[in-house]
Amino acid sequence: MKLAVLVSGSGSNLQALIDRIEQGHLAARIVLVMSNNKDAYGLERARKHGLPCAVVEHGAFADRESFEREMTSRIQASGAELVVLAGFMRILSPVFIGAFSGKIVNIHPALLPSFPGLHAQRQQAEYGVRLGGCTVHFVDEKMDHGPILIQAAVPALPDDDEGTLGARILELEHRIYPQALQWLAQKRLRLNGRQVILSGQEKLSARGDFFVWPPLEHPF
Ligand code: GRF
Predict the structure, then answer these.
(1) Distance CA 8, CA 21 (A)
(2) Can you tell me the distance from the alpha carbon of 166 to that of 174, in angstroms, rounded to the nearest whole number?
(3) Residue 133: how many CB atoms within 10 A of its CB?
(4) 147-191 pLDDT per residue, tens
(5) pTM: predicted TM-score of the whole model, two decimal places
(6) Of these residues, 108, 119, 137, 145, which one is catalytic?
């Protein structure tokens, strides 16, 4: 499966994908790493691994549409089959989303549909959630909204802040994003409305599988 990965910053999720591919656990090839920010550390990571990079700076375009058209044509030229948003910090309009309909995925650092939007880690810490988490979802025209491929929950502690909770969430991001992409590479996912059905796990039973935080105490 050929991937175009879009980054704006540190690119630690990109690194997790690169590592899983190099370990032979993710059957994918990154054919393009693209950023709207020429200083994104994610580009540096890509170059270290000899991956093709492109910088398309939004500020260089008259409007969102022309910026997105440029990104679209670069992605199409790369032959990518899936667009992977990995900390890409620009809102994407229907121009872009329509060009890759059903072929864009994103990772969001919260258990959607709770805490969409910016600074989700800070929102969760300030709200006082007991469980925080992260979500990999298909991208549709509403922000942080499309069908969910996988989620992970982590404990949130009373003295957590954006940084400590965010770090705990990020560790899980680095595990669930490669897993979700591997399912896509294996063509094991099918959409039924908003439900994403994973083949090979039809017999999963939810019985006995739960995560309560803080832990239940005897005799509950
Ligand atoms: C992650 O928290 C991701 O969930 C969010 O942006 C952040 C990107 O981090 N969409 P990195 O650039 O992958 O390190």
Answers:
(1) 21
(2) 12
(3) 27
(4) 999 999 999 999 999 999 999 999 999 999 999 999 999 999 999
(5) 0.97
(6) 108
